[in-house]
Amino acid sequence: MLYEMRPERMTGAHIGGLLAELVCSNSMGAKTVDRASGLLKEELRRMGSLLLACAESTAVSAGNALAVDRNGFAQEVTKSIESHPRIVVRREEVQQIPDGLCIIASGPLTSVSLSAALKQYLGEEHLFFYDAVAPIVELESIDFSIAYRGSRYGKGDQPEGDYINCPMNQAEYEQFVEALIAAERIGLKEFEADLDEGVTAGPQEFFEGCLPIEIMARRGKTALAFGPMRPVGLRNPHTGSKAYAVVQLRQDNLAATLYNLVGFQTNLTYAEQKKVFRMIPGLQNAEFIRYGQMHRNTYIYSPEHLEVTLQAKKRMDLLFAGQITGVEGYLGNIATGLLAGINASRLRLGLDPLILPRETMLGALCHYITSANRKDFQPMKANMGILPKLDGERVYGKRERGKKYAERALRVLEDYQKGIIL
């Protein structure tokens, strides 16, 4: 029995009732196994992940990354789940923690009622952070006499390049940064409008991986030029030269009619977004299909409350999965959901739940969120830094280390799977 409260009750970020609706980026990270997200994909592939299969079947061009048609992906997931003979989808809100074997995967926008029930069960406040999403524009509104297609260093699926690039000279960049910093932002309290009395937010912090572009800009005059607007690996075919800074747009739907501004998650007012983002060369007449926005993300203090199997310490037939556990990123959410589902099934069959080896990316993620100390605990994406160090001689170069980590992880996973009692 799968409970989904949408569309009967909506959140501040979702727009429809499809399962697995993506409200942030449409990218699921790198494809190659020498990168953390690519390694996690391969682990999911070997573990039979349905959602990864749905993502790959609805992929759009994004160079070395797996990006999806967000509506196509949600439709594919919804069709796969609703047509499954052993799954019943109930469109209603769960307001209390159910008795018996269950998984809570209520995500970053857990409803007020369920949040209150979790608060009472956990005996402490949830931890909150704020997440931001980037705007989406219509392809036809982009001026290609200024903008151009291309991928960094010519790498990509499409001959002409997988990204649309909007180049800036130094003067244009500095004017843009000044306007960005001066622009009016939406107060964070407006994003707590759905919080009932008695359910209060904690520190108003942003997760580093989803920092609003205007906050990044305040870190220094060149912060964006060395961050999401870095021009490396790109040469403007209109001029034959490299720009001072570049705004990249990534395909957002399979029809290639919509593009999102990469790294431009924001909390500016809609009016300011329209004014400031139209200062970007090539986007002076941009038509915005979706403006950037902020939403409140909720996660629990997993080291206190969860076993590495994703079972609640106070109740072993209660499991948690996804972003509410402190895992960040689509792939981490998909992966912990898969593991929680497998372990729930094993508990029902009277088998021991799986504890994945720490050498695997998923095993390392589960270890991190259930063992980090309180001072350092924050949402964590898949990354090579959480894996145990490599044995033997030192390996130089990020790519080479990534390959070694991946080889070890996949070898360990294969051996582990051979010993699993089914």
Structural class given helices, strands, pairing?
alpha+beta
Count up the helices: 11
The rounded distance between the terminal residues' Cα atoms is 23 Å
CATH fold assignment of the largest domain:
FAD/NAD(P)-binding domain
Low-confidence stretches: 190-204
- Text of the CATH class of the largest domain: Alpha Beta
Largest sheet: 6 strands, antiparallel
The shape, in one word, is globular
Strand tally is 16
The fourth-level CATH homologous superfamily of the largest domain is FAD/NAD(P)-binding domain
Strand content: 15-25%
Which CATH architecture of the largest domain would you pick? 3-Layer(bba) Sandwich
Overall mean confidence score, pLDDT: 91
| Main β-sheet, spatial strand arrangement | 9-10-11-12-8-13
Helix content: 25-40%
Q: How many domains comprise the coordinates?
A: 2
CA-based gyration radius: 22 Å
What string, H for helix and E for strand, traces the elements in order?
A: EEHHEEHEEHEEEEHHEEHEEHEEHHH
